[in-house]
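Worked problem 6 (solution included).
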Amino acid sequence: MKKLYNSLIKILNQAIKLALTFLCLGIVVQLLIDDDLLGWDPISNIQSAGPSFIGVISLVVLFLLFNKK
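Solution. The predicted structure is:
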């Protein structure tokens, strides 16, 4: 049972890392081309998170998670 749990945690960690990589890549590419990516607008989604610094905080968290080894 412990082996199954460890393998499941490993798979989930890899999936989250892959999703964060695509999200960060999408943000960088959208900043470079200044247009939506195939109908996906990650920067607008982060900006519409709230009128306060939620968007900035989410970008910082994404950056920290992306650089986490």
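Discussion: The mean pLDDT is 77.
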